[in-house]
Design a protein that fits this description.
Order of helices and strands: HHEHEHEHEHEEHEHHEHHHEHHEEHH
CATH architecture: Alpha-Beta Complex
Keywords: Ligase, Transferase
Distance between the termini: 17 Å
Shape: globular
GO molecular function: glutaminyl-tRNA synthase (glutamine-hydrolyzing) activity; transferase activity
EC number: 6.3.5.7
Number of domains: 1
CATH class: Alpha Beta
Family: Belongs to the amidase family.
Number of helices: 16
Pfam families: Amidase (PF01425)
Strand order of the largest sheet: 1-3-2-4-6-5-10-11-9-7-8
């Protein structure tokens, strides 16, 4: 069983389908592993031992009867603790909600359960998903499994660590400015933020309703496709939900990238990079070129103004949601969130409306700029993870912008995939980001899968990940 902790969903799923692996045994071993090593990593707030065991028994009975729901049948999955799971505390990483127990599942959780996934626990996060570090004053800091002194990224840090450390085979995260992709890159796994509206956010406590996304975090690109297929689809309970029926799964992987046009915007994606990060992403781009892709430089108009608009929109919307809580529980928030609310309260209605107008203009201009390319490429993280506790609370509002190149995809609402692309500083992972046009998730995943399978160092990388 030991060697299976770091295996892919695809591999473990096949073992279950062939009755070579029991969902009950798999779940019990994952629970034992969590008990053994998560005391140090702190990736979970709640471990759902009773519920997970009960679900595993049911799925094993179905397996023995020849009923397999799909590739997630019997697979332990973690859920970020800002997403509702029926009968389990949903703290949102805050002491304010520590005793709140929802009476229904979020739509994405319902879909995972229907697909046969076993919800193994609720993953730790940056308080209310409002930060890039997952340093949590209420439930403890989450530690990067590659270096326990380093942050894992955030806000979905617990989800990333659970997957990277073999405590779950996949996880759900949320992404408002990079909260899936940044921790995925810093922990050496795959993460995808879907197109805005593809995945329902019903049952997820909002940060910014016009920027929030829910998406999967996995160890391989193919696994991300499996999870995204399971959670996608229209939901009348989410007003932003979009009716889009195209499947994400791809049966035939790409063996080369001939005919694929990849755009580079050096003004943003390659600005202010750590030297080793730049070397890793440059090598990755060269590898994509070797696989047949055409690399094309492009320009994005009004980029800096659009990114500033994201800050205005996000902080306005989060203050709007939290205002009733702040009136009563303001003293219970972490120090870094208090600074964020101070910034948000100073934003006027005119500023907010103008930011949304500029955003819409930027989306139109970007679609024009992308006419001659299929995807954009760049680094996911621009810097290595910094030490836990090294950034003052009043400086934390800028962490997502200083650590990563992820906010661009959120202001656009376009899909974005991060894939590991190298090792920096001798032992820390870094990520490559692909940004697509609306609802081009399948193409993004196919490109990422082709790179992942044909990159010569990837098997060695996965073996090193298993050692950590």
């Amino acid at each position: 069983m030991t060697e299976l902790f770091m295996e892919s969903i695809s591999t473990v799923s096949q073992f279950i389908k062939e009755k070579r692996l029991s969902p009950v045994e798999l779940t019990n071993q994952i629970l034992k592993r969590i008990s053994k090593i998560d005391t140090e990593l702190n990736s979970f707030i709640t471990v759902m031992e009773t519920d997970a065991t009960k679900q595993a028994k049911l799925l094993e009975e179905e397996m023995m009867a020849g009923k397999i729901r799909g590739p997630l049948h019997g697979i332990p999955i973690a859920v970020k603790d800002i997403i509702q799971v029926q009968g389990q505390p949903t703290t949102s990483g805050s002491i304010i909600f520590e005793k709140w127990v929802p009476d229904e599942d979020a739509t994405v959780v319902k879909k995972l359960k229907k697909a046969g996934a076993i919800i193994i626990g609720k993953a730790n996060l940056h308080e209310f998903a409002m930060g890039a570090t997952t340093e949590n004053p209420h439930y403890g800091n989450v530690k990067n499994p590659w270096n326990l002194n380093k942050i894992p990224g955030g806000s979905s840090g617990g989800s990333a660590v659970a997957v990277a450390a073999g405590l779950s085979y996949g996880a759900l995260g949320t992404d408002t400015a990079g909260s899936i992709r940044l921790p995925a890159a810093l922990c050496g796994i795959v993460g995808i933020k879907p197109t805005y509206g593809r995945v329902s956010r019903n049952g997820c406590l909002p940060f910014s309703w016009s920027l929030d996304h829910i998406g999967p975090m996995t160890r391989t690109v193919k696994d991300a496709a499996i999870m995204l297929e399971a959670i996608s689809g229209y939901d009348s309970k989410d007003t932003s939900s979009v009716k889009h029926c195209e499947s994400i799964n791809f049966a035939d992987p790409l063996i080369h990238l001939k005919g694929i046009r990849i755009g580079i915007c050096k003004d943003y994606l390659f600005d202010d990079l750590n030297e080793e990060v730049q070397l890793a992403i440059t090598r990755a781009i060269e590898r994509l070129r070797e696989l047949g892709a055409q690399i094309i430089e492009i320009e994005l108009k009004n980029l800096s103004m659009a990114l500033n608009s994201l800050k205005v929109i996000a902080q306005s919307e989060v203050v709007s949601f939290h205002q009733p809580l702040l009136n009563q529980y303001g003293h219970l928030y972490g120090d870094d969130l208090k600074y964020r609310f101070k910034f948000g309260k100073a934003i006027s209605a005119v500023d907010y409306i103008n930011a949304q107008r500029l955003r819409n203009l930027f989306i139109e201009q970007t679609l024009e700029s992308l006419q001659n390319v299929d995807v954009l490429i760049g680094p996911t993280n621009s810097q290595p993870p910094f030490d836990i506790g090294s950034v003052l609370p009043e400086e934390a509002i800028n962490n997502m912008f200083s650590l990563g190149k992820t906010p661009l995809a959120n202001i656009l609402g376009f899909p974005a995939l991060t894939v590991p692309c190298g090792i920096i500083n001798g032992h820390l992972p870094t990520g490559m980001q692909l940004i697509g046009k609306p609802f081009s998730e399948k193409l993004l995943l196919q490109i990422g899968d082709c790179y992942e399978r044909q990159e010569t160092w990837f098997e060695q990388y996965m073996a090193k990940l298993a050692e950590n």
